[in-house]
């Protein structure tokens, strides 16, 4: 009878015990066989002390894969998916005066799909290629006088255009002052009626 019991003990697999370990800061699940074994206990202490062991590597589950992906994602936490500049907000004292400049001089068109009546101030959205300028009729906290003559030395909005010489002729006809790029590249700087600096660079 004792012989049968001994044979059975060889055929029946030893009891298993779920074990949660951490491998390089990542939690993994494995199975510890024969928990009473001195070798397994030693291995467990080693795993806890060093954070890794061959058993954990061999028995890693899907949970490890998921957490490893999360760890990789954490490295890209600053990558929130920048696409482009959506619009630039410019302050103006009188919306009609500004629209006359941006529409009649620069030839920009209003984006009628953008709401104009849902904000507590007057404004307009103007198409600049696939992006926009948002004109906002609000008090300007910046001084309108004493600003640099050359808009390139002031905060400014840069618009890419095809022909700087053609825009130069348009500004000349309208009597609007401007300066050219100091580096010699094809670019022109001017200001709107509220002294907002604008750069037009040829691409």
Helix content: 25-40%
- The dominant shape is extended
**Number of alpha- plus pi-helical segments:** 6
Largest sheet: 4 strands, mixed
Topology, number of strands = 9
What is the succession of H and E elements? Answer: HEEHHHEHEEEHEEE
The average pLDDT value, as a whole number, equals 79
CATH class category of the largest domain: Alpha Beta
Which structural class do the helices and strands define?
A: alpha/beta
Query: How many independent structural domains?
Result: 2
Beta-strand percentage? 25-35%
Uncertain regions spanning at least 5 consecutive residues: 2-14, 16-44
Main β-sheet, spatial strand arrangement: 6-9-8-7
Q: Predict the CATH topology of the largest domain.
A: 2,3-Dihydroxybiphenyl 1,2-Dioxygenase, domain 1
N→C terminal distance: 94 Å
Radius of gyration: 35 Å
Describe this structure as you would to a colleague:
- There is one protein chain.
- By secondary structure, this protein is an alpha/beta fold.
- It folds into two domains: 11-67, no CATH class; 87-202, 2,3-Dihydroxybiphenyl 1,2-Dioxygenase, domain 1 (Roll).
- 32% of the residues lie in helices and 27% in strands.
- It has six helices and nine strands; from the N terminus they run αββαααβαβββαβββ.
- The protein has helices at 2-11, 38-50, 54-59, 62-75, 95-105, 164-174; strands at residues 16-23, 26-33, 87-92, 123-128, 131-137, 156-161, 178-180, 187-191, 197-202.
- The strands form three sheets. Strands 6-9-8-7 form a four-stranded mixed sheet, covered by helices on one side. It has a three-stranded mixed sheet with strand order 3-5-4, covered by helices on one side.
- The chain is extended.
- The protein starts with a helix and ends with a strand.
- InterPro entries: Glyas_Bleomycin-R_OHBP_Dase (IPR029068), Glyas_Fos-R_dOase_dom (IPR004360), GlyoxalaseI/FosfomycinResist (IPR050383), VOC_core (IPR037523).
- This is VOC domain-containing protein.
């Amino acid at each position: 009878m004792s012989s049968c019991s001994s044979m059975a003990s060889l055929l029946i697999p030893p009891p298993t015990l779920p074990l949660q370990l951490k491998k390089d800061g990542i939690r993994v699940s494995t199975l510890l066989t024969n928990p009473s074994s001195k070798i397994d206990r030693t291995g467990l202490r080693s795993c806890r002390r060093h954070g890794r062991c061959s058993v954990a590597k061999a028995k890693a589950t899907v949970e490890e894969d998921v957490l490893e992906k999360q760890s990789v994602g954490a490295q890209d936490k600053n990558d929130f998916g920048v696409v482009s500049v959506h619009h630039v907000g410019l302050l103006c004292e009188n919306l009609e005066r500004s629209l006359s400049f941006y529409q009649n001089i620069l030839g920009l068109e209003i984006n009628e799909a953008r709401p104009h009546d849902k904000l507590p101030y007057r404004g307009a959205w103007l198409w600049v290629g696939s992006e926009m300028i948002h004109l906002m009729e609000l008090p300007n906290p910046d001084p309108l006088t004493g600003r640099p003559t050359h808009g390139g030395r002031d905060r400014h909005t840069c618009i890419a255009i095809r022909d700087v010489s053609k825009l130069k002729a348009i500004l000349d006809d309208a009597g609007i002052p401007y300066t050219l790029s100091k580096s010699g590249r094809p670019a022109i700087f001017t200001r709107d009626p509220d002294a907002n600096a604008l750069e037009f660079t040829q691409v």
